[in-house]
Specification:
Shape: rod-shaped
Helix content: 40-55%
Strand content: 15-25%
Strand order of the largest sheet: 1-2-9-4-7
Largest sheet: 5 strands, antiparallel
Order of helices and strands: EHHEEEEEEEEHHHHHHHEHHEEHEEHEE
Radius of gyration: 36 Å
Number of helices: 13
Amino acid sequence: MSGQPLPCNPTEIGSLFLFEKLSPEQLGQLCREGRVEKFEPGPVYTEGDPATCFYVMIEGTVVLSRRVGGDDVEVTRTSQRGVYAGSMQAYLGDRVRQVYNNSMRVTEPSRFFVLPGEAFSDFMQQWFPMAVHLLEGLFFGSKSTQRAIGQRERLLALGSLSAGLTHELNNPAAAAVRATATLRERVGKMRHKLAVIAQGSYSPEVMANLIDIQERTAERVAKAPVLSPLEAADREDALTDWLDDHGIQEGWRIAPTFVQAGIDADWLDQIAAAVDEEILPNAIGWLSYTVETELLMDEINDSTNRISHLVDAAKQYSQLDRAPYQVADVHELLDSTLLMLSGKTGERIKVVKEYDRTLPKIPAYPAELNQVWTNLIDNAVAAINDVGGEGTLTVRTGLDRDQLLVEFRDTGPGVPPEIRSRIFDPFFTTKPVGEGTGLGLDISWRIVVNKHHGTLQVESEPGDTRFQVLLPLTAGESDTPEEPA
C-alpha cells in the first residue's frame, strides 16, 4: 500500500534516534534516496509479501501482527517516534529470502520515512561496513548454531527412540526364540511318542481314530476360552484328578497345559472312550505334546506379529516411504509416536487416549508432526519424573471451531508463570546443563506455526499442564498435499 508523498526534511529525519548520529551529508542522501509518506488508518504491508521497503515512523500509531492459524495476532502496538520495521535484513541481499515477517497497519493518520530496501542495503554497506560484517556473522552464525543443535536434538530423540524400539522389539524376539527352541524339543518328543504308539499292534482304524482326535484337539486349542485365574485353578484341579484316576503319571504337570488349550474332563472322557485302556497314557502324552506345539506356534505367531506391528509403527513414525506433504490421520501419527516412546513412559506413567475418531484427515507434514509429538511427550514425561515418576499423560484430540486440536496433558509440577512466555524461545531450557538443548519447543513451534499455519500454546497450573496444538483442516493456497497410497 502506498501513502501520500510528502517533502523530506533532513533535520526532521535526523531527530529520529535511528539517524541522530548521521552527518548532514548522510541525512541529505537519505532524503534523496528515500521519501516521507503519510498513511491513513489501515494496512501498510502484509506478512509474506516481498520486503521492498524499510519504514521508520515519524509520528502516529503503528500495530505489528503475525499470522497464526487463520488469525492475525497483535505483536506490538506503539506510538514511539523512530520505531522501525520492514526490510530490516536487506543488507543480507539474496542470501536470505526478503519477505515481510509480520504485517503492519496504522490506527491513525501516520507519517513514515520510507527507504527502498536496496538503498537501505547500500547505505549499510557504505556507512557501517564493520557493523554489517558483525550482523551477518551474528545472523548466519545463529542460523548455523540452531541448525547444528537442532540436528543434535533430532539425533538425541532418534537415540532415545532407537533405545525404546530396541527394547520393545527385544521382548517379542526373545519370546519367539524361546518358543522355537521349546517347540523343537516338543516336536522331537511327539515323534518319539508316535513311534512308541506305532510299534504297538494297533489296527489302522485305531491309528486313524488317534489322528482324528489329534486334529480335533488342535482345533480346540485355536478356540480356547479365556478363563479367570479362579476358573483356571478349578479346572486344573478337576483335570489333575481325572488324569490320576486314569493312571496318567505326572497329571499335575499336564493339567495346566490342557486347561490353557481349552480341554476339560468331558473332552478327556471322549478320548478315553475312543482308545483302548492300555494305550490311553501314550495317547494322552501324545496329545499333550500336540497341545504344547500348538500353543508354542501361537506364541511364535503372536511374537512375530508384534515385531511386524512395531516395524510398521517405526515406518509410520519415520514416514520414510511417504510423501513429505500429504493428507494424514493424526491418530495414526500419535499412536506410532506413543509406541516409539513406550520405553520412556514405562509402567509408572499411565497413558490415556481420548481420541475423537470422527475427525477428518488433514493436510500435513507427518514426519515433522511426529517430531512435535515426540518433543511434547518427552517434556510431559520429564515433568512427571520431576514429581516422582508416577502420573498420567492424556492425549486428546477434538475439533476447536474450524481447527483440529491435539492436546497433551500431564500431571507434572506445571510451568511457572514467570517463564511461561519464554518456553518457546530458542535455547531456553530449565533442564540441567548438558541435558537439554532448549530447541525442542522452538522446533515444535516453528513446525506447527510456520509450516502448518497452526497454533501451539500452553495452559498450566500445578498438576495440570496442557500443550495444545491447533492445525488447519484444509491446505493453504500454496500447499498441495498428496493423498496417501
